[in-house]
Design brief:
Length: about 70
């Protein structure tokens, strides 16, 4: 688990948990980004912003596996 506070104070960090599950010829990567509720009214705004960011990052990972 890591704290995610890009451009924000560490006290306002969300949590990111990354797990890897190996299978015969592939690895499944699961990313859970949580803790938004702690941020009050700012939580949904930051969550939406991070969803767009993750979409771009994950596409690079997907392409790297092809």
């Amino acid at each position: 688990m890591l704290l995610w506070h890009l451009r924000f104070d560490r006290a306002d960090a969300a949590e990111v948990e990354v797990t890897f599950a190996g299978e015969e010829h592939q690895t499944t990567v699961t990313i859970v980004h949580s803790g938004w509720e702690r941020l009050g009214t700012e939580g949904p705004i930051r969550r939406e912003r991070n969803e767009r960011g993750w979409a771009g990052v994950l596409e690079h990972y997907r392409r790297a596996t092809l």
